[in-house]
Design a protein that fits this description.
Blueprint lengths: L1 H18 L4 H6 L4 H31 L6 H11 L7 H37 L7 H20 L30 H30 L12 H32 L10 E2 L2 E2 L7 H35 L6 H15 L14 H13 L1 H15 L8 H23 L2 H7 L3 H31 L1 E2 L2 H27 L19 H16 L1 H14 L1 E2 L63
Antiparallel strand pairs: 1-2, 3-4
GO molecular function, one term: heme binding
GO biological process, one term: respiratory electron transport chain
InterPro entries: Cyt_c_oxase-like_su1_dom (IPR023616), Cyt_c_oxase-like_su1_sf (IPR036927), Cyt_C_Oxase_1 (IPR000883), Cyt_c_Oxase_su1_BS (IPR023615)
């Protein structure tokens, strides 16, 4: 099969060069070239990131200075949601909901999987393109449509969805429950259904491409770790996304067609509603069966990117290559049997809670394997401290600090005390938000020359890293303490509770760090967009890296390689190998006589 696929893709590449010129529309808009689709995902993800972070700044200001009047609230939210510039509680809930949705699905999932799986899978396995370029294009445009619908939901009369990004019923199932349960909620569900279709098409494409289109000599044990993580991420997506789709569809039925999957015996303002027989906890099970694998769908690509960048910039082989692959596979398997740890206080059977505690603590082991292997890769390396490397090391740091608190939250008895407090927010923002974002930034700095043929400015990259690193910890480190003090999440003000008065200053501190950190992302955006047009021209292999993507010409062409696709003779991590003149040996270099073949 792979040989046939190989020949087909080879011929296709040549036909494409001879027969027709691309127009603007086929080249930049409805492109079937994986490199262009990767850029489309990247730019869309960045724009959604601006919106998602902007929302978090608005609600952070509300938490720090509750009931204050801000002109910026009136400007962005309008008179209805912020009368006289004072944010209403409905507006606060809506911002929290849409911020979570945008960041998890439209920024991290698309920014990492959409961008880097598309860019790197064909380039690093030696393929002309994805298995199906057309399906790849459709998956991007479905993603784009879903982002537009999600943004439209912000402007409907009844207000955007406000049931939290987890949209638990009955809040999300009863249009009359809160203002944001009307049309905004329906649009949220439609947007999510389209997003899931997009993700599934992308994932199927990635899996088929990795299995069928590897170049000659590229065995599974010679694949870079980036490809392993993208491959396994796609498999997790195929397994878990359909479950969320079913939950969303059943919720649409409950909302619009009078069914009762997720609702039983409900009273609103003394009126008995006719629902019976459903269970809101059933929705929680369906949601978290995707929701937990989703955090690994977000973090695994970041792990692969970081593994690649750390070993390239340490100038030494990755430590424990096979253990890294095993840990990725273990994480993938375990990620599907830990969802119940989000539901310890939903009235779950305590015995079932203990089972989920066990599997949750178990998943710490492969995660720790990865962390130790990264540290050992850095140990005594010849470290090249470019911005991509700094963000990769930062990711290892936040992954460890964020992961430690997961051991507390994963234990059903300890979780009772901090469940639904800021402690949870601190944990998952560090471990999947900031860590994934660092992986994303590292990937952008590292593969920018491959995408755009130019280099980003190093000094601006350093400024971006250090301010972001200080501010990220400045925001999420104090949250652990206010969480342990019992401050609940999702409250738009805590002024009604005198016992939380002492924590008000901490919230102001957190907000100041958030505002400064967000302001300095302007440095990154300037660097990014300026460098696309005016950056220093890139050489073919600026980081002196071993993987196949650096053997392609700097100028893009559909088909990636002019002439033959190179063959692979070794794994991707022969750095500083004795007996070679250079400190890197690309995968296309055959073994010399007498050179040991350690990995086969």
């Amino acid at each position: 099969m792979s040989a046939v696929g190989h020949d087909l893709s080879h011929d296709h590449g040549h036909d494409h060069e001879h027969h027709h010129k691309d127009t603007f529309i086929t080249k930049y808009i409805f492109s079937i070239d994986h490199k262009m689709i990767a850029k489309q995902y990247l730019i869309t993800g960045l724009l959604m990131g601006i919106i998602g972070v902007g929302m978090s700044l608005l609600f952070r200001m509300q938490i720090a200075w509750p009931e204050e009047s801000f002109g910026i609230f009136k400007f962005f939210l309008g008179e209805k949601m912020a009368p006289g510039g004072v944010m209403k509680n409905d507006a606060y809930l809506a911002l929290v909901t849409i911020h979570g949705t945008i960041m998890v699905f439209f920024v991290l999932t698309a920014g990492l999987s959409g961008t880097f799986s598309n860019l790197l899978i064909p380039l690093q396995i030696g393929a002309r393109d994805m298995a199906s370029g057309f399906m790849n294009m459709i998956s991007y445009w479905l993603f784009f449509i879903s982002t537009i619908i999600m943004l439209c939901s912000l402007f409907v009369e009844s207000g955007p969805a406000s049931a939290g990004w987890t949209i638990y019923p009955p809040l999300s199932a009863l249009p009359q429950a809160i203002p944001g349960s009307g049309t905004g909620m329906t649009l949220w569900l439609i947007s999510m259904a389209i997003f899931i279709a997009s993700s599934l098409m992308g994932s199927l494409n990635y899996v088929v491409t990795v299995i069928n289109l590897r170049t000659k000599g590229m065995s599974m044990t010679r694949l870079p770790l980036t490809i392993w993580t993208f491959f396994v991420t796609a498999i997790i997506g195929i397994v878990s996304f359909p479950v969320l789709l079913s939950a969303a569809l059943l919720l649409i039925f409950d909302r619009s067609f009078g069914t009762s999957f997720f609702m039983s015996d409900i009273y609103i303002a003394g009126e008995v509603l006719h629902y019976q027989g459903g269970s809101p906890v059933l929705f929680e099970h369906l949601f978290w069966f995707l929701g937990h694998p989703e955090v690994y769908i977000v973090i695994l690509p970041a792990m692969g990117i970081v593994s690649e960048i750390l070993t390239t910039n340490s100038r030494k082989p990755i430590f424990g290559y096979r253990a890294m692959i095993a840990s990725v596979l273990a994480i993938a398997f375990l990620s599907t049997i830990v969802w119940g740890h989000h539901m310890f206080i939903s009235g779950m059977n305590p015995f079932l809670g203990s089972v989920f505690t066990f599997t949750t603590l178990l998943i710490a082991i492969p995660s720790a394997v990865k962390a130790f292997n990264w540290i050992t890769t850095l140990w005594k390396g010849n470290l090249q401290m470019n911005p991509g490397m700094l963000f990769s090391i930062g990711m290892v740091s936040t992954f460890i600090t964020g992961g430690l608190t997961g051991i507390i939250l994963g234990d059903s008895t300890l979780d009772i005390n901090v469940h639904d407090t800021y402690f949870v927010i601190a944990h998952f923002h560090l471990v999947m938000g900031i860590s994934a974002l660092y992986g994303f930034f590292a990937g952008v700095y590292h593969w920018f020359p491959k995408m755009f043929g130019r280099m980003m400015d190093k000094n601006l990259g350093y400024i971006h890293f250090w301010v972001t690193a200080v501010c990220a910890y400045g925001v999420f480190f104090p949250m652990h303490f206010i969480g342990m003090a019992g401050l609940p999440r999702r409250y738009y003000t805590n002024t009604a509770f005198p016992l939380f008065d002492d924590l008000a200053d901490v919230n102001v501190l957190i907000t100041v760090f958030a505002l400064v950190g967000a302001a300095f992302q302007v440095v990154f955006f300037w660097n990014f967009f300026y460098s696309i047009f005016y950056g220093k021209k890139a050489t073919q292999n600026p980081w002196r890296s071993n993987t196949l993507e650096w053997t392609t010409p700097v100028e893009h062409m559909h088909g990636n390689w002019p002439g033959e696709i190179p063959h692979v003779h070794r794994w991707a991590y022969d750095y500083s190998k004795p007996g070679h003149d250079e400190d890197f040996v690309p995968q296309i270099v055959p073994y010399k006589d007498g050179e040991e073949q350690l990995h086969h």
